[in-house]
Amino acid sequence: MKITVVGTGYVGLVSGTCLAEVGNDVLCLDVDPEKIRILEEGGIPIYEPGLQDMVRRNVAAGRLHFTTDIEKAVQHGTVQFIAVGTPPDEDGSADLQYVLGAARNIGRLMTDYKVVVDKSTVPVGTGAKVHAAIADELQKRGVNTPYSVVSNPEFLKEGAAVEDFMRPDRIVVGAEDEQAIHLMRALYAPFQRNHERLIVTDIKSAELTKYAANAMLATRISFMNELANLAEVLGADIEMVRQGIGSDPRIGYHFLYPGCGYGGSCFPKDVKALIKTAQDDADISLKVLTAVEEANDAQKHVLTGKIKSRFGDLKGKHFALWGLAFKPNTDDMREAPSRELIADLFAAGATVSAYDPVAMHETQRIFGDESRLKYADSPMGALEGADALVIVTEWKEFRSPDFEAIKATLKNPVIFDGRNLYDPKFVRNSGIDYFAIGR
Ligand code: NAD
């Protein structure tokens, strides 16, 4: 099948590459010439495990191409995936300018039947707006080329995106005409060979499903974070509580980890956007989600509170930071809790040495030549001259460190662990002052 993917970010590049992997002829379009240059030179502009090899393999096989040429991209695919960003607007609603811009480009240039598939996370009602934008462009040209609009929200997780796309739990397709449903079934058949995972819904339900999924996951995290804060005051251990409730199959173990707040490009913005849609379009105040967001905003400062209670005045203090990305296996720094922590430490007069296996480059891009932030080339390197260690991202390589070496290198043997990586007894027995979340 001939497929165009508009946007080569985390979702677009992974989707396009995986669709090429199963034999499709895929052209990926981006308006950012730098991204396309990197891709054309055999690199990838993001970090995502397994992606680089898959891109190279499919480029070499002639199934995957990249372009900045909009007209060529519109002509190429019968299926046109829109996978551009939908960042939060100032009022928290999803900014649809990139999605509608892409839809207009398709309407302006298409000359034959297209299935326009929205993969970006968009509020309920966007399918109709995409439809109207294309209709408007066709009308301006005085042509009546047929097209279908489909909502196909993406559920991949950064850090495991290739695996998630190749072996999805479910594929949600919101479509309202048979031709489009037929095409989408054919397109996704290779990804669900052992059993059917494709759920066909109306367009609005598909759009809402994506927000509902992220909102539920964010709710579980904020719920656990609040209970962790309570457990700490009451003298209970949230990790024991987590195991105690996770064993109930109605609850399950997933997404029950307390920590220093959720971040990333999806949960914060999608929770905000859903609250806003409910308010503006339905006059409904989503009380649970409003609290989820409030709890998360507060949780991003929990480590700062612990550091201040332990050290008092932070002026002139220097902290080692392990982990910058919002979660392991990605270089994505969008809404990462580390950013709030670093800002808090700077505001209190402290400085930071950070180490992250892949996100330091992106952090440097964000913070520029900020002199209060130094980068170390190893976890232990970050500890030199530091008053304490703060852990923000649960990278595997932080899970079993040499505590004796940590103690010998830090000025004070203190660890603030925002991801509950260690057994508190073990660490404390090593002579380290250990502060975790909810235990
Ligand atoms: P991203 O910011 O990494 O990538 C978006 C890309 O689109 C950028 O490269 C940008 O240059 C490009 N772009 C913008 N306008 C364009 C246009 N008119 N034509 C061509 N290219 C254009 O974003 P992302 O993280 O891949 O997310 C994309 C969408 O998918 C968002 O709506 C997001 O909420 C959703 N989503 C993201 C994830 C995730 O884990 N990142 C998971 C599921 C869904």
TrEMBL record:
Reactions performed catalytically: UDP-alpha-D-glucose + 2 NAD(+) + H2O = UDP-alpha-D-glucuronate + 2 NADH + 3 H(+)
Protein EC: 1.1.1.22
Keyword NAD: yes
Pfam families: UDPG_MGDP_dh, UDPG_MGDP_dh_C, UDPG_MGDP_dh_N
Domain UDP-glucose/GDP-mannose dehydrogenase C-terminal intervals: 320-424
This protein's UniProt keywords: NAD, Oxidoreductase
Enzyme class: oxidoreductase
Pathway: Nucleotide-sugar biosynthesis; UDP-alpha-D-glucuronate biosynthesis; UDP-alpha-D-glucuronate from UDP-alpha-D-glucose: step 1/1
The keyword Oxidoreductase belongs to this UniProt entry's keyword annotation: yes
Domain of life: Bacteria
Annotated NCBIfam families: NDP-sugDHase (TIGR03026)
Family designation: Belongs to the UDP-glucose/GDP-mannose dehydrogenase family.
This protein's name: UDP-glucose 6-dehydrogenase
Organism listed in the record: Dechloromonas hankyongensis
